[in-house]
Amino acid sequence: MKTYEIKPDIFWVGAIDWAVRDFHGYITPNGTTYNNYLIIDEQVTLVDTVKHDFSRHTIKNIKSLVDPSKITNLVINHIEPDHASSMDKIMSLCPDATIYITEKGKKGLEKQFDISKWKFKVVKTGDTLNTGKYTLTFLETPMLHWPDSMMTYIPEVKLLISQDAFGQHLATPARFDDEFLECASRNELDDAVLDYYANILMPFGNLIKSKIAEVQKLGLEIDMIAPDHGVIWRQDPGGIIQRYLDLAGGKADLRIAMIYDTMWHSTERMTIPIMQGIKDEGVDCKVIKLRSTPMSIAIKEFWRARGCLIGSPTLNNILFPSVAEFLTHLRGLRPKNRIMGAFGSYGWGGGAVKGAYEEINKMKLECVEPGVQVLSRPSMEDEKECYEFGRNFARKVREYHEQFS
Ligand code: FEO
Fold first, then answer.
1. Nearest C-alpha to atom 1 of ligand 1 is from which residue?
2. What kind and span of H or E run contains 266?
3. CA 244, chain centre distance (Å)
4. Residues flanking ligand 1, CB < 6 Å
5. CB within 10 Å: which end of the chain, N or C, has fewer?
6. pLDDT tens, the chain, 405 aa long
7. Residue 359: active-site member
């Protein structure tokens, strides 16, 4: 693996994981990277480690630049195992190094490692570490997205090392946003940002807004953001900050995600006239069958769209299991600023559409009721009803969307 000098004497020494497709249950079709950074100054400092499977990659990278025993400081911005689980290997090479970490981070590490022989310096927002020509300034970001999380800012080079925030799951030869865009496209990069935000950071929109406001109030100049996953933002760091503000503020496309599952195709048959009604109202629509689509992609498409329709057959008088699973997962992500409705089919007693609305109402989102439900295979009359339901839902989505423009 090659190292990259991202600022004078500051190097990317991470690892690229081309193969990971299931990241603790979250589908990563493009793999990911584990980014960490080595600062070669009077005091050599490593910021973060990598997932344990890749420890030899980062150690090899570090050794290509400096003898690891020379590492004086190890900054741990985040203790989730994809960033901290190589700590024991790293510390075995520089046992006298001091670990800079938040109080919650240190407590969390006690559960993962025997830390009795490690030296710690617990830090808070505003604390600094002078390494020679550089001053590392720590900024706690609790619950972004774990209690321990913090970022490291280096004013001399206007560099923010941001751990998970502003990251993307993208394994690519490119280390920087502009390099990536030379080979791929803006849409691909935006899609990776949206995917990461929707699946990991959706619950924390208000915290993101207030933390960005805090950074702006502190007047920190930033001309590079180096996250712990994906490409480094050197061409347009302001753009990714604005993108996060938009996402945290609930920005979405005038679009409807129709997310459904089906048993004997009755619910599936309903999607066609509903989609036609939506289209005839001039609103874009994305149709997703749950058992054919990874959960994380369904979540991303939910978050991209202003409106969402849930479709479910009835099984034993309640929601179909895959639909129930999706709605439970979605509720945990605490979505905001979205409008929802439901449709479905049943064989005798019914219950799926009622169950879907119960779940939607728990999320306290805008809701269009009643939904539409059909007995068995939709008749011509049922299809007309579905079409009108789609048109009406699209009108409501447009009206609701206007308040965000
Ligand atoms: Fe990339 Fe929260 O770990």
1. 164
2. helix 266-280
3. 11
4. 78, 80, 82-83, 145-146, 164, 228-229
5. C
6. 799 999 999 999 999 999 999 998 899 999 999 999 999 999 999 999 999 999 999 999 999 999 999 999 999 999 999 999 999 999 999 999 999 999 999 999 999 999 999 999 999 999 999 999 999 999 999 999 999 999 999 999 999 999 999 999 999 999 999 999 988 888 999 999 999 999 999 999 999 999 999 988 888 999 999 999 999 999 999 999 999 999 999 899 999 999 999 999 999 999 999 999 999 999 999 999 999 999 999 999 999 999 999 999 999 999 999 999 999 999 999 999 999 999 999 999 999 999 999 999 999 999 999 999 999 999 999 999 999 999 999 999 999 999 987
7. no
Reply yes or no on whether 88 is catalytic: no
Residue 237: burial class (beta carbons within 10 Å; 0-12, 13-18, 19+):
buried
Give the separation between CA 175 and CA 191, rounded to whole angstroms.
17
Cα–Cα separations (whole angstroms), residue 31 to 169, 181, 308, 361: 6, 17, 28, 35
| CA 274 – CA 384 distance, rounded (Å) | 9
- The residue among 108, 120, 114, 111 whose CA lies nearest residue 146 is 108
DSSP E strand stretches across 193-262: 224-227, 253-260
Query: Nearest 5°: CA angle at 125, between 242 and 154?
Result: 65
User: How far apart (Å, rounded) are the C-alpha atoms in residues 307 and 234?
Assistant: 34
Report which ligand 1 atom has the smallest distance to the Cα of 163. 1
Query: Which of the residues 153, 229, 244, 301 is marked catalytic?
Result: 229
* Nearest Cα residue to 177 out of 112, 129, 237: 237
The 3-state DSSP class for residue 256 equals strand
Rounded CA-CA distance 277/266 in Å is 18
Tokens representing 67 are 């003898």
Q: What separation in Å is there between the alpha carbon of 145 and the centre of ligand 1?
A: 8
* Structure tokens, 64: 């290509």
164: annotated active-site residue: yes
Quick one: the chain helix, strand, coil %, rounded to 5? 40, 25, 35
Residue 223 annotated as catalytic: no
SS3 275: helix
Tell me if residue 36 falls in helix, strand or coil: coil
Please answer whether residues 84 and 58 qualify as being in contact, where contact means their C-beta atoms are separated by less than 8 angstroms. Answer: no
